[in-house]
Amino acid sequence: MRLPSVFAAALLVAGCSSAQPGLGPEINVPAQLSTIQDAVDVAKEGATIVVSPGVYEESVQVRTKGLTIRGARRGSVIIDGETERANGIVVAAADVSVQNLTVRNHTSDGVLISEQRGFRVSYVTASNNAQFGVHALNSQNGVIEQSYASGSAGSGFSVSRCKPCDVVVRGNVAERNAVGYQGTNASGRMFVLGNRFSGNRVGMTSAAERQEDVVLVGNLVSDNDETLSPAQADGAFGLGMSLLASTKNLVSRNLITGNPGTGLALSRGQDPAPADLAGNVIVGNGQDVRYDDAGPRKKVRAPRGIPFNQVAAPPLQPEMPSDPLPDRAPDVEKYALPSEDLFDDRAAVRA
């Protein structure tokens, strides 16, 4: 017997509503919806998606503004690319936060912020991703903080193609990457503060056609000669910090030590003084400071390296506290010269 059309439509609506009952401003995965992507797809602006421990074999695309994706336990909420999927989380909406989880084994990036404003990445572990651990691409007004990256064949943390950036990279640990931190054409209120870039092939680089208003303060950049890291950046193996085509920047209160190649490599750019270097300690490197026109540089033979997915698993990382996260604004003055044991408790590679 054929059902009346009105009655059939009513059944259809009832069936749809019962499939997603009572979803509010907080959505729990997998208790309410089985995948993170399912939760993201139905979440309204401003919602929080809380993810319980488990391995989630998916690539998450975020297109709704104002969402927060938060893991219940950082080390056991894992978005695993299985070396098959390109990215763990792609943020394609404004004012999105990614917190307290792990992204691993992707053929491109762990977390990719793509052409957005107002992003925040906090207490994220990004390991064994083929390009970048956390990458902010053509994005502005964001924070990358208290996170960890290893096994990246590009760089652990990357900010690229923004001017002005209004981006703060603070309190992170990068080790066993080709490069710890990479800033590429990233100028204008670009802050890299109080990070540990140690035990990579290259510690950190910042370069642009003309780079201005970049602040690199309070970072530990040490012992960047790690052989058990992805086999890229071979030409600069053993380099601590590189600042190229750069003027009117602040490079201060950094400890740059134990890098067997060059501690700090500078391009003179178009001005006589490429950077303000007051207050740094640059000692114990193969060559402490070098300008690009200062004659032959000290070269270090680069070992072959290993595939990104064979880099050792990260050590246990701290959970995000229940207290509110600090203000997004940088407080440059609070970052003092670090000691060599900065964030030792979060690192596997020791000085």
From TrEMBL:
This is Right-handed parallel beta-helix repeat-containing protein. Residues 325-334 have a biased composition (Basic and acidic residues). It comes from the Bacteria. Residues 1-19 form the signal peptide. InterPro entries: Beta_helix, PbH1, Pectin_lyas_fold, Pectin_lyase_fold/virulence, SCF-Subunits/Alg-Epimerases. Keywords: Repeat, Signal. Residues 110-271 form the Right handed beta helix domain. It comes from Lentzea kristufekii. SUPFAM superfamilies: Pectin lyase-like. Residues 288-351 are annotated as: Disordered. Pfam families: Beta_helix (PF13229). The keyword DNA-binding does not apply. Residues 315-324 have a biased composition (Pro residues).
